[in-house]
Amino acid sequence: MKYVGLTNDPQARKQFHGNPVDWWQIDFSSEKEARTWKKTMAEKPEYVDGPDDGGWKFGYTYTIVITTRQQ
């Protein structure tokens, strides 16, 4: 299972989630573009949507493992 989220501070979010080894991120130029991307990703069966930190400039994904935090 993979987690998908949005943030304005990807380094802080990556650290918060336990520095996942397969961290992947993308940057956006508009909030609408970011929210559409997240919604599309979260609709895929292998992804889980989670709470954001209030940002939208970067989208990110990583594989959920026992040592990662998803909040």
Q: Which features does this protein show?
A:
71 residues; alpha+beta; four-stranded mixed sheet; 2 helices; 4 strands; 27% strand
Q: What is the CA-CA span between the terminal residues?
A: 15 Å
What is the mean pLDDT? 90
**What's the shape?**
globular
Sheet having the most strands: 4 strands, mixed
Q: Provide the succession of SSEs.
A: EHEHEE
Order of the strands making up the biggest sheet:
2-4-1-3
Number of helices: 2
Low-pLDDT segments, ≥5 res? none
Q: Estimate the helix proportion, in percent.
A: 25-40%
Give the tally of structural domains: 1
Radius of gyration: 11 Å
Textual characterization of the structure:
The protein is of the alpha+beta class. The chain has one domain (2-63). Helix content is 27%, strand content 27%. The protein is built from 2 helices and 4 strands, in the order βαβαββ. Strands 2-4-1-3 form a 4-stranded mixed beta sheet, with helices on one face. The longest helix has 12 residues, at 31-42. It is globular, with a radius of gyration of 11 Å. The mean pLDDT is 90.
Summarize the structure.
The chain has about 70 residues and is an alpha+beta fold.
